[in-house]
Amino acid sequence: MNKNFYPKYEHRIAIQWCLKNDIKVYVNPTKRGLKVIINDRGKKIISPQYYTKNDANNKCWELYLYIYKKYFEI
């Protein structure tokens, strides 16, 4: 990716919905790079791959929107 990502309105709605429902997506730094973690009400899923700072940020926005569409817009 490595492009600057500008969240749209739907991304902001998605993150609000996820946070209200105790679903968080965040970055965990390691020696080899950044891992993205999804914390779904205490159940953590860690990405198998490493990301750069920019790519990790983009992935977090992408995951918030994916989760929102999967659970809210069924």
Short description:
This protein has 74 residues and is of the alpha+beta class. Helix content is 42%, strand content 24%.
Distance between the termini: 28 Å
E-strand count: 3
Summing up helix and strand content along with how strands pair, one would put the structural category as alpha+beta
Helix content: 40-55%
Largest sheet: 3 strands, antiparallel
Look at the structure and give the mean pLDDT.
92
Q: What's the tally of helices? A: 2
Order of helices and strands: HEEEH
Instruction: Give start-end ranges of low-pLDDT stretches.
Output: none
CATH structural class: Alpha Beta
Look up the CATH topology.
Double Stranded RNA Binding Domain
Counting structural domains, the number is: 1
Cα radius of gyration in angstroms: 12 Å
Provide the CATH architecture: 2-Layer Sandwich
Side by side, the strands of the main sheet go 1-2-3
Shape: globular
Beta-strand percentage range: 15-25%
